[in-house]
């Protein structure tokens, strides 16, 4: 039997374990995680806190017992203290304080990411929290339910920050949303799109504080105020959603790292140590839009990387096909999706691009159930290959972004898109729909 140890049992680790257990019977799989649960869908925390779903139970899609039934050795509430990469040993500490050691032939690091913690005065006060694990969601949910919590500051207007701001507002609290950027969702969308989201947030009662950076928290035992570069605001609860960094503690002194500290991996998820693979938020990936290695922390990317690593560890040769970073959000009825690079991102990477915009009704005007759709397609000036797309609407247009994800992966040009075979039926779209028209209007 070949011994494979997987450290980290959430999305990436689970995908790797399933690939091994379901396809390679000669593998002895050991899963180790310091949490008391596995498979929690953190993207559902805001749905639960905002009472858009009845309970959190279905946010767990598997459990320890299912993996044990498949033949895995599963150690939860177990911390890995150290790894001896030369003798291939993992040293562990169980929740009861006992220590033990496990040997491996192959190691898969699926240690995920850790929240960025602002190192500012007052950051140890009570009622300052993050949203990462299930337990974090439990604490925030309980606090939001307390009558004494009236004003909540959310620090960070990325996806998690905007989603939890909506959720807490739905619970009847006053919400102040802060970000150092001049707008929300700036990592995913250009200003023309985020302006619509910012108006949506404001019209639904979220107090926006952009271009503001938190300098300190004030309070005796619990947080009572947040101080920024523009003012001081009384608050009863702070949710930090600034972002995440790869959790590289176990291997940073042994493995080659990317610029942000993520484990640098090849297309097979193999690190600089041939016996060690890295998957999920602790590892790099290849961006087809950029045409090079980068870092994009998304659950979907984590699952794909876990599948790739699992099969390669099992003995197959399976290369990653790269990613586009496809994503989406739905806030107070406004749906936005994107993939690849925005104009701002292309400028950051010094890629010369053009773009085409189009806004129209989703369906013919005679259809009663109808909404406006806005689309932007970003393409390289020289090659004219599509490298990004953004869409927004009050209707669900989310599936269309998958077309653009595939277009980027296949290096499709904006000119090829002009004559793409797209069906028409009034129930769904227009004969000259927004995708065709955006492409036809490209320079």
Automatic annotation (TrEMBL):
FAD/NAD(P)-binding domain location: 3-306
Residue intervals of the Pyridine nucleotide-disulphide oxidoreductase dimerisation domain: 333-428
Catalytic activity: 2 NADH + O2 + 2 H(+) = 2 NAD(+) + 2 H2O
The protein's enzyme class: oxidoreductase
MF (Gene Ontology): oxidoreductase activity
Enzyme Commission code(s) on record: 1.6.3.4
Annotated SUPFAM superfamilies: FAD/NAD(P)-binding domain, FAD/NAD-linked reductases, dimerisation (C-terminal) domain
Named cofactor requirement(s): FAD
Keyword set, alphabetical order: FAD, Flavoprotein, NAD, Oxidation, Oxidoreductase, Redox-active center
Pfam families linked: Pyr_redox_2, Pyr_redox_dim
Family: Belongs to the class-III pyridine nucleotide-disulfide oxidoreductase family.
Protein's name in the database: NADH oxidase
Native species: Enterococcus ureilyticus
């Amino acid at each position: 039997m070949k011994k494979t140890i997987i450290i980290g049992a959430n999305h990436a680790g689970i995908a790797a374990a399933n690939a091994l257990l379901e396809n390679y019977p000669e593998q002895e799989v050991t899963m180790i995680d310091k949490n008391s649960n596995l498979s929690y869908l953190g993207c559902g925390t805001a749905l639960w806190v905002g009472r858009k779903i009845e309970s959190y139970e279905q946010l767990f899609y598997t459990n320890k017992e299912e993996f044990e039934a498949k033949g895995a050795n599963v150690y939860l509430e177990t911390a890995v203290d150290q790894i001896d990469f030369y003798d291939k040993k993992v040293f562990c500490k169980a929740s009861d304080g006992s220590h033990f050691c496990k040997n491996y032939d192959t190691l898969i690091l699926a240690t995920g990411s850790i929240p960025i913690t602002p190192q500012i005065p007052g950051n140890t006060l009570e009622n300052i929290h993050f949203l990462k694990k299930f337990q974090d969601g439990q604490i925030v949910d309980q606090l939001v339910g307390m009558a004494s919590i009236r004003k909540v500051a959310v620090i960070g207007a990325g996806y998690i920050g905007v989603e939890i701001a909506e959720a807490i507002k739905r619970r009847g609290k006053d919400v102040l949303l802060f970000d150092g950027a001049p707008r929300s969702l700036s990592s995913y969308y250009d200003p023309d799109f985020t302006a619509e989201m910012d108006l949506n947030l404001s019209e639904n009662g979220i107090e926006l504080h952009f271009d503001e950076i938190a300098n300190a928290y004030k309070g005796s035992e619990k947080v009572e105020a947040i101080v920024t570069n523009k003012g001081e605001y009384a608050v009863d609860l702070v949710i930090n959603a600034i972002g995440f960094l790869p959790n590289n503690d176990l291997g940073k002194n042994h493995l080659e790292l990317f610029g942000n500290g993520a484990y640098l991996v090849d297309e097979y998820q193999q690190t600089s140590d041939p016996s060690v693979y890295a998957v999920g938020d602790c590892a790099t990936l290849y961006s087809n839009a950029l045409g090079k290695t980068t870092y994009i922390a998304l659950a979907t990317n984590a699952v794909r990387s876990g599948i790739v690593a699992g099969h390669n560890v099992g003995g197959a040769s399976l290369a990653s096909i790269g990613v586009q970073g496809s994503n989406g959000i739905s806030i107070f009825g406004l749906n936005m999706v994107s993939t690849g690079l925005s104009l701002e991102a292309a400028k950051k990477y010094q890629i010369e691009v053009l773009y085409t915009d189009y806004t129209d009704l989703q369906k013919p005007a005679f259809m009663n159930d109808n909404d406006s759709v806005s689309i932007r397609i970003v393409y390289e000036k020289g090659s004219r290959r599509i490298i990004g797309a953004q869409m927004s609407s009050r209707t669900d247009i989310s599936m269309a972004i998958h077309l653009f994800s595939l277009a980027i992966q296949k290096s499709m040009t904006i000119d090829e898109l002009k004559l793409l075979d797209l069906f028409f039926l009034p129930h769904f779209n227009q004969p000259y729909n927004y995708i065709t028209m955006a492409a036809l209007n490209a320079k």
